[in-house]
Amino acid sequence: MGNSGSAVKVCTDHQGGINWLSLSPDGQRLLTGSEDGTARLWSTADSQCHGHFQGHESYITFCHLENEAAFTCSADHTIRKWDVMTGQCLAIYRGHTSIVNRILVAKDYLFSGSYDRTARCWSVDKEKQIQEFRGHRNCVLTLAHYSSRDVLEEEEEEEEEEEKVSRDLLVTGSTDCTVKVWWVSSGRCYQTLLGHTGAVLCLILDAPNRELFSGSTDYTIRTWNIVTGEQLKVFKEHQGSVICLELVNRHLYSGSADRTVKCWLVDTGERIQTYKAHKHSVSTLKYHAGILFTGSGDACARAFNSKSGVLQKIFRGHKFIINCIQIHNELLYTASHDGTLRIWDIRGICKRNKRRLRKERSVQGRSSQKGRLSRLFNNRVGCMVQQENGE
Q1: 72: helix, coil or strand?
Q2: C-alpha dihedral, 285 to 286 to 287 to 289, nearest 10°
Q3: Which spans of this chain does UniProt mark as WD repeats (predicted)?
Q4: d(CA 186, CA 162)
Q5: Are the CB atoms for 183 and 169 separated by under 8 Å?
Q6: What pLDDT shows up at residue 67?
Q7: How many CB atoms within 10 Å of residue 142?
Q8: pLDDT tens, residue by residue, 113-132
Q9: Which of 151, 232, 317, 361 lies in the 20 to 30 Å Cα band around 380?
Q10: How far, CA to CA in Å, does 104 sit from each of 12, 55, 200, 244?
């Protein structure tokens, strides 16, 4: 049974629900995007708001933070780029004809997915659309990006001669039940991955292993070879929509509307753990130092021992669904539709988990040593018996 915890700080500056929370690569700042049409910048050093980005004409659906620039997308059909230091709007990307659901920044590219059934690619430094990806029959909900250099062998790359100018690929998941892979340079569809019978809600990419994982409202997670488009495995044990995914050390964690998270061995497809105790859908999850943190529609965040599945702590205080969580310097940040950003101290459970891991390694080490000594003893006994028998 987990112990409840209280937040060390509650930030109430937003006037509407927080839809997303992004952490900068250097860990110094957080960005929140809200139903109030604004984004706010927070320092992880003092937990104070150091920036207020205003300009969108409707609610912000998603946000992304780099070290020097912030990006927001909105139901006003636009994407905006902001200067982190001054709060100035540096660029407005116009072209979508409906709500922009997701954005993704990779290299010099800005990618976006929308209810207008398209994904688009923009130049980060210019207010210019580079490419449009048209082919989905319904809205684009989720995005991933990789380079063919990460996954294709030299002979395979030669087959794609026309695409060698740019080897970047965009992956899109849609409510039309398909996943599509696109060449960024031409906008041509490279693969359409068929198999889901419900909307694709989440994607996670493992480019070095040529694998893509997709979660859907059809209650399944599917694994795909992103080079051949072959469906590799189907994970079927959830009893509700798969909402979020996390991949760590060949372990796949999936959060679902069935109020559970499940852990799967990617290589075998075996489900090895189920994390219960949620009273509503699992909306977000994050793995950190052997602990699985979850956010739920029941307004609570939870910490589980990732190996045993034991609930270690419940974080209570939010009033509505937790939409996103981040972790930095043993602080847990939770953003909720209640409009608050809450900050929780997780040093205690991190320390306990580290002690547990050390103890387990010590026990495993002693067990391994006992096994070696036992084998050595048995070998010696075997040799003595053979000598006595004159063998």
Answers
A1: strand
A2: -130
A3: 11-43, 93-132, 169-192, 193-234, 235-274, 315-347
A4: 9
A5: yes
A6: 94
A7: 22
A8: 999 999 999 999 888 999 99
A9: 361
A10: 27, 20, 17, 17
* Adjacency order of strands within the sheet including 100-106: 100-106, 109-114, 118-123, 129-134
CA distance 245 to 253: 6
Distance, in Å, from the CA atom of 279 to the CA atom of 171, rounded to the nearest integer, reads: 33
pLDDT at position 314: 97
Whole-number Cα distances in Å, 35 to 15, 21, 56, 57: 8, 13, 11, 11
* Cα–Cα dist 386/391, whole Å: 5
Sheet containing strand 200-206, edge to edge, reads: 200-206, 211-216, 221-225, 231-235
* H-helix segments, the chain: 154-159, 347-388
Q: How far apart are CA 182 and CA 168, in angstroms?
A: 9
pLDDT confidence of residue 133: 98
Which pLDDT does position 157 carry in this prediction? Answer: 47
How many angstroms separate the CA atoms of 338 and 383, rounded?
Answer: 73
Hey, what are 54's tokens?
A: 């205003």
Instruction: Rounding to the nearest 10 degrees, give the CA dihedral for residues 236, 242, 246, 248.
Output: -10
The band of 371, judged by pLDDT with boundaries at 50, 70 and 90, is low
DSSP line for 163-183: GTT--EEEEEEETTS-EEEEE
Q: Given a cut of 50, is residue 391 above it in pLDDT?
A: no
**For 88-126, b where at least 16 C-beta lie within 10 A, e where not — what string?**
ebebebebbeebbbbbbbbeebbbbbbbbbbbbbbebee
Q: Which long-range contacts (CB under 8 A, 24 or more apart) does 74-78 make?
A: 74/37, 74/99, 74/100, 75/99, 75/100, 77/114, 77/116
* Token pair 């026990």 in the structure block, residue: 363
Phi-psi region of 104 (alpha: psi -120 to 50; beta: other; left: phi over 0): beta
Residue 277, token pair as written in the block: 């105790």
pLDDT of residue 366: 56
DSSP 2: P
The answer for residues whose C-beta is within 8 angstroms of residue 104's C-beta and 6 or more apart is 64, 110, 111, 112, 143, 144, 145
Distances, alpha carbon 231 to alpha carbons 9, 82, 204, 234, 258, in Å: 45, 40, 15, 8, 24
pTM: 0.88
pLDDT at res. 34: 98
